[in-house]
Amino acid sequence: MLLSTLPDLGGRAFEVRGMVIAQGAFGAIGGGSTQQLVASLIEQAGRFGADGIVDVKTMIGGNAAHCVMTGTAVKLL
Questions:
Q1: Is-contact 7 68, C-beta < 8 A?
Q2: Measured between alpha carbons, how far apart are the two ends of the chain, in Å?
Q3: Measured between alpha carbons, how far is 75 from 77 in angstroms, rounded to an integer?
Q4: Which domains does the chain have, with CATH numbers?
Q5: How far apart are CA 48 and CA 56, in angstroms?
Q6: Taking the CB of residue 25, how many other CB atoms lie within 10 A of it?
């Protein structure tokens, strides 16, 4: 699975399949991990028949260190 923070892949063509999102809290109690969030994005992209995720964004904030990751699932052509 290709993951990229770039909205395009430098001349590579792709077809947009859908939006993926994962969220969790990284607090001491019931904390999550970045790997779990990425695994969730990959699993969702797979359901779209995608083989890549572009324009990956991560936002962290709040008292419980809440984290949201988003991306665009794509099929490379």
A1: no
A2: 14
A3: 6
A4: 2-76 (3.30.110.70)
A5: 16
A6: 16
What distance in Å separates the CA atoms of residue 42 and residue 61, rounded to the nearest whole number? 23
**Residue 28: band (very low, low, confident or very high) from pLDDT cuts 50, 70, 90:** low
Cα(21)–Cα(69) distance, rounded to whole angstroms?
A: 6
Single out the residue of 16, 41, 33 nearest to residue 67, CA to CA: 33
pLDDT in tens, 1-14: 888 888 777 778 89
User: Which helix (DSSP H) or strand (DSSP E) does residue 36 occupy?
Assistant: helix 34-47
CB within 8 Å of 29: residues ≥ 6 apart: none
pLDDT at 39: 93
Phi, psi dihedral angles at 62 (to 5 degrees): 85, 170
